[in-house]
Design a protein that fits this description.
By secondary structure, the protein is α/β, with parallel strands linked by helices. It folds into two domains: about 190 residues, Spore Coat Polysaccharide Biosynthesis Protein SpsA, Chain A, CATH 3.90.550.10; about 35 residues, no CATH class. Helix content is about 30%, strand content about 20%. The chain has six helices and ten strands. The strands form three sheets. Strands 4-1-5-9-6-10 form a six-stranded mixed beta sheet, sandwiched between helices.
């Protein structure tokens, strides 16, 4: 199996929920749930947190992650891209350790219900597809884009243009194409994809389909309450 670096990106400037990544969820900082799942994954070799926040760095180290560098403020803004922090991490390990992983698993801390088993399975999927540039975790789209509209001059126009424009928006869901949306849970890419294609995804992307529980993405106080509810209702918590 390849050398796999789990990189947990966690900037300190959350706007909708200040201090989100260190806010307690089930008695532990939010980021700890992702760090602990990554540490429990047998296919992951190292767990590293990329952050600009001393508080997040301290919580990450307490949970068992490495924090060998601090992310520069210039690439830790709300408009910063995946490419920026991925290249920063890869360059740091190249320059300071003369090391580069074979696979880079990006695990956002806002997905605390993602399990170690899913991380292992996703790594295995990309390992079995050497032709692929990357893997993206997805879930079934609950609101189909064929039923979405935009306002153009005060009138509704279909968001997605299809051949049968007159009827596509009236069809039953089971008659529509199956559509997935990325869920910010497990993204895995290759350093060569980042460096050679200047993209976190590249052109050939394999899917990793996850259910709605593991796809919970925390961005609001209500999301915290939802995650607490799922954790309290069964064994599928992030510490499983």
């Amino acid at each position: 199996m390849s050398d796999v670096l789990a990189l947990v990106p966690a900037r300190g400037g959350a706007e909708r929920v200040p201090g989100k990544n260190v806010r307690l969820l089930k008695g532990r900082p939010l980021i700890a749930h992702t760090v602990e799942a990554a540490l429990a994954a047998s296919n992951v070799d190292r767990v590293v947190v990329s952050t600009d926040s001393p508080d997040i760095a301290a919580a990450a180290r307490e949970a068992g992650a490495e924090v060998p560098f601090m992310r520069p403020a210039g690439i830790a803004a709300s408009t910063s891209t995946e490419m920026e922090f991925l290249l920063h991490a890869l360059d740091w390990f190249r320059d300071h350790e003369d090391w580069e992983p074979d696979l880079l698993a990006i695990l956002y801390p806002t997905s605390p219900l993602r399990t170690a088993a899913s991380i292992d399975a996703a790594v295995g999927v990309l390992h079995d597809h050497p032709e692929a540039d990357s893997l993206r975790s997805v879930r079934l789209c609950s609101e189909h884009p064929y039923k979405m509209w935009v306002d153009v001059g005060g009138y509704l126009k279909p968001f997605v243009k299809v051949d049968d424009m007159a009827n596509a928006h009236t069809l039953a869901y089971q008659m529509l194409p199956t559509v997935y949306v990325q869920n910010a849970s497990i993204y895995i890419t290759r350093p060569r994809t980042i460096r050679e294609k200047q993209s976190p995804t590249g052109d050939i992307i394999v899917p990793f389909v996850m259910d709605e529980i593991e796809s919970v993405d925390i961005n609001t106080p209500l999301d915290f309450a939802l995650a607490e509810l799922f954790m309290a209702s069964g064994p599928r918590a992030a510490d499983s």
